[in-house]
Amino acid sequence: MASDRMAWARWPVLAHAARTAVAALASLLVARLFRLPEAY
Q1: From CA 24, how far away is CA 7, in angstroms rounded?
Q2: Which of 10, 11, 29, 31 has the most neighbouring CB atoms within 10 Å?
Q3: Exposure string for 5-37, b = 16+ CB within 10 A, e = fewer
Q4: Upper half-sphere CA count for residue 11 (Cβ side, 13 Å)
Q5: Nearest Cα residue to 18 out of 29, 30, 7, 26
Q6: Which residues, 6 or more positions from 28, have their beta carbon under 8 angstroms from its beta carbon?
Q7: Sign of CA dihedral 8, 10, 13, 14
Q8: What region does 35 belong to: left with phi over 0, alpha with psi -120 to 50, or beta?
Q9: With contact defined as beta carbons under 8 Å apart, do 39 and 32 qualify?
Q10: Is the pLDDT of residue 5 over 80?
Q11: Tens digit of each residue's pLDDT (9 = 90 or more) over 16-32
Q12: For 21-24, which contacts have Cβ atoms below 8 Å and span 24 or more sequence positions?
């Protein structure tokens, strides 16, 4: 039972990490598209 709770507790963390990664990648691609300096 406790292991079930631990498995479900990780999903919000993974979802937030995935959303952050997608946002960072989109930001980088837009910056490169407009040839902005320091696009990192």
Answers
A1: 26
A2: 31
A3: eeeeeeeeeeeeeeeeeeeeeeeeeeeeeeeee
A4: 4
A5: 26
A6: 39, 40
A7: negative
A8: left
A9: yes
A10: no
A11: 999 999 999 999 999 99
A12: none
* Nearest in space to 30 (alpha carbons), one of 40, 20, 21: 40
Q: Which residue has the tokens 């709770």?
A: 5
Residue 40 has pLDDT above 80, yes or no: no
Residue with tokens 């292991």: 3
